[in-house]
Amino acid sequence: QKEVEQNSGPLSVPEGAIASLNCTYSDRGSQSFFWYRQYSGKSPELIMFIYSNGDKEDGRFTAQLNKASQYVSLLIRDSQPSDSATYLCAPGPASSGGYQKVTFGTGTKLQVIP
Amino acid sequence: NAGVMQNPRHLVRRRGQEARLRCSPMKGHSHVYWYRQLPEEGLKFMVYLQKENIIDESGMPKERFSAEFPKEGPSILRIQQVVRGDSAAYFCASSPRTSGGINYNEQFFGPGTRLTVL
Question: A32 to chain B, minimum CA–CA distance in Å?
Fold first, then answer.
């Protein structure tokens, strides 16, 4: 079972700023990560998947994976009030294949202040 | 293309009653996962099922909880003799397959069932 840790927050940023969300993990075998966003009272939705070292960009979102330091981060540029939500990270399947239980971090609550 | 469906969306039970939560995965998905989320807490894995098989139930409480995914029909999470501590949001997710190389298995979540035990 993989363990992930996230700062529960809340992380408050002003509108237009960059929000930086971090997740550390203990299993060096983790090959990939999901970032999910969960609005209050709603179900999680996938926003990013990253499986290689370095950065992956999608619109205002950039995921960064550093396997040597065992952390993965999510940067949100030009933060908007609509980005206010809880962000969950979870390790993805190992590249070697096979079933692997997804263990979510507790999530970081982001508040974007207008 | 309908997403993951869960019903009921809200369920109220008195202590000692049974709760049945249903989940219909997305079309073409044969893998179902159940999670529980207590207020202000993270998602906790409960069970992973494929059609007619329980693959991983390591997150299920030892008593009162059971899950099934029959050949026909939705997956059912059953909670017998509910207690107030069972009050939570229960989410179901489905995926088309498990891992395979870099072809990840994104889990698509349903809207959840909010269980309230009086």
Answer: 9
